[in-house]
Every structure is written in structure tokens, then in C-alpha cells.
Amino acid sequence: MAEKKKKAVKKKNVKKVAKKKVANKKVVKKKVKKAKAKRKPNPAFMKPMRISDALSKIVGSKPLPRTEVTKKLWQYIKKNRLQDAVNKRNINADENLMPIFGGSRTVSMFEMTKLVSRHLS
After folding, report:
1. Residues sharing a CB contact under 8 Å with residue 121, sequence separation 6 or more, in sequence order
2. What is the CA radius of gyration of the chain?
3. How much is the pTM?
């Protein structure tokens, strides 16, 4: 039994763990997000363009930006109910729009912008 006590008296192997050095953490300040500025329009679209005589019958004779010309043209189309009832993408030309549309009676709204751009300089 004495041998057993000796074994029991022996110290248990305890691993010594070295303390880890903790690096000083830098305090990061959170950046406050600024409110997003409104989107700036492309200056090329805002440049006043000279309007041809045929187009001036609809939108006026003063130089206007391309965006305003399109707005006024749509106002004219809606006012005179020139949008096709069945296919809303088509515009039916009246006597004022015929020279702008190159003589076509019906033009799609996608073609319209291309045809109108010929009357702006």
C-alpha cells in the first residue's frame, strides 16, 4: 500500500500555459454617412438645342434641352390623342407631326426619338 500512496502523492503534470499578450486594439471611429446627393443630370441632355421649323409648330421656337422637347412632344401627343388605342407604343401622326416623322403615318415611340433628333441642332 505504501507504493500506492507514493503514486498518489506524486504531483500531477500540470501544463503551464503562458499568458497571451493582447495587442492594443485601435478604436475605429465609425464614419457617419452623408445623405446622398441627388443624381446630377447629364449636361449634354440639358444643353439648349435649336429647333427646326417643323418641330417649332409643336414645341415652340425657343431653344430647349432635348428632355424638354420630348416632354412637350408627349404633351402634344396626349392632348390630341395621337397615341394608338390598340398598340400604345405607336403614335399616329397628324398634319403637324407628318414632316417630323418623315411622312410616315404611324411611328413607334422608339423611332420617334430618332426622328425628332434630326430636327434638333
Report:
1. 49, 50, 52
2. 39
3. 0.63
Count the Cβ atoms, other than its own, within 10 Å of residue 58: 20
Determine the Cα–Cα distance for residues 69 and 56; give it in Å rounded to an integer.
Answer: 10
Contacts of residue 81, defined as CB under 8 A and 6 or more positions apart, other chains included, come to none
Nearest Cα to Cα of residue 74 among 114, 119, 46, 112: 112
The helix (H) or strand (E) run that includes residue 92 is: strand 90-92
Q: How far apart are CA 86 and CA 51, in angstroms?
A: 31
Give the per-residue pLDDT at 12.
61
CA dist 116 and 100 (Å) reads 6
Burial class (CB in 10 A: 0-12, 13-18, 19+), 112: buried
